[in-house]
């Protein structure tokens, strides 16, 4: 029975702060056991959503259901939802063990059982033997793991993560991404992950929602959001995209409806290469060349505008200038709403 | 080859530049120069007078001639530990402790509200209101309390208005702290001290509580902590250094005061009064000095304890 119920359900939720609608009439559902990301620029309402789910904030209108139960007005301590805070929010006066065991202590779990479960959790996040340390003695990555263990020990229905990897450097962040994913698979808890990093959202999520100005622009699995962006905002925010409209659109597809096409879907050839019968093509002039190591990004001028093209650096012959032919498949054109 | 003079020599103010450059390369020298005046002040005026005080406490008064005998002796400290003097010390410490505890209990909610909830304008207004009494004369404020607490004073009027005379009489009939009116009971100096030192408790508490990030309270609620649990396990332990810092002020200020107990209260003596009387009219400088050493010793232990509790992180 509970298998069918969504872990989190928003029904026409609005949260207004004075002049600004941080969350504007949102409705969406997150399934049980899902890794769901809320992706968007800062101020787009994703963190407000998270705070509404956690119970730190209440909506002005609408309904928030956790496993089918109305929760919009429940205080945080009455929700079976735990949070990993952006600044980790570890209690500085407690040891790692006391931090992780805090919720069990409040529940008056017997000391021996508490000790055992704290040890298990610290094993899970690879911090075995760190129990007696103070948070100030840990590195950023270790604090992050403590925060994760502390939030998971209660076996919440939903784990909320508020940009938890934001403060870590790139290498550590990539490693933590892998671990987060592995831990989520292991504990089978619904993870709701807030991030402004589109790559992170694509890598980790089962599904993601792209936020803009308190609204959701698109919800879908990562490949769908990347390959078939629904709006110009999504096309532009998730990855690099050519958003084409006006005269250039007229010239390329014979209609001035705007569309998006990913730079890596466009192939650059010399003018003599024959165009396959079902493909589209255009001729342009190379304006800018940006060498990125693994690939090269070109800006190609066409009549009525520019297109960005990315070519993998598989050969050493990188064209620098001159006229080129651009070829792409019709299916890679995404009409935008 | 043409001889080019150094850049500094070609410009005016050559001598001053040399001095400036000299100190630029010797930052420690500059620091020593800057610290010379305050160090002299502290060394001579503060430590010097403390040292003089300490030395005097080891002299004694010749009962027969009434002259101070400048020889090392522990006789004065012997007198200090007599029954009646011991009572004075205990009374003073008891007063300082109860004022401190009452101030902490009164100050915490206000400091918490100011640190966590008050909007900026209200917070500024509250800070001003807390500091405002410090602008008026201390003696005037103490005498005001004498009037407020007098038998025909405004507080008695309020008590009659609410028909609480029974409660008042019960308080006043308590042995050793009661009296004929609040003004001349031990409650008189207690209330005046509490009023006088409360700002010194509120402000460090507020500073300490402001340093507790909001996310910690949220984290506690998130992990199942109701208001009381969050207060008990997160806010109180993290705000406690502020309480201790504030108590250093309330405790030491009460310990040394001699004006409040001489204007209010049941004329039983406090340490400060004894020091004042003994060195003035009685001319017994050694016993006055010995009495002054008592709060110094108490405060030394108090500060060591406070440091252990992290109070100085909140100053």
Automatic annotation (TrEMBL), chain A:
The keyword ATP-binding applies. GO terms for cellular component: ATP-binding cassette (ABC) transporter complex. The keyword Transport applies. Residues 8-238 form the ABC transporter domain. Keywords: ATP-binding, Nucleotide-binding, Transport. It comes from the Bacteria. GO terms for molecular function: ATP binding; ATP hydrolysis activity; transmembrane transporter activity. It is found in: Cell inner membrane. It is a peripheral membrane protein. This is ABC transporter ATP-binding protein. It comes from Drouetiella hepatica Uher 2000/2452.
Automatic annotation (TrEMBL), chain B:
SUPFAM superfamilies: MetI-like. GO terms for cellular component: plasma membrane. Keywords: Cell membrane, Membrane, Transmembrane, Transmembrane helix, Transport. InterPro entries: MetI-like, MetI-like_sf. GO terms for biological process: transmembrane transport. It holds the Pfam family BPD_transp_1. Residues 89-304 form the ABC transmembrane type-1 domain. The keyword Lyase does not apply. It is a multi-pass membrane protein. It comes from the Bacteria. The chain crosses the membrane at residues 30-55, 88-112, 124-143, 186-209, 229-251, 258-277, 283-304. It is found in: Cell membrane. Belongs to the binding-protein-dependent transport system permease family. CysTW subfamily. PANTHER family: INNER MEMBRANE ABC TRANSPORTER PERMEASE PROTEIN YDCU-RELATED (PTHR42929:SF1), INNER MEMBRANE ABC TRANSPORTER PERMEASE PROTEIN YDCU-RELATED-RELATED (PTHR42929). This is ABC transporter permease. The lineage of its organism: Bacteria, Bacillati, Cyanobacteriota, Cyanophyceae, Oculatellales.
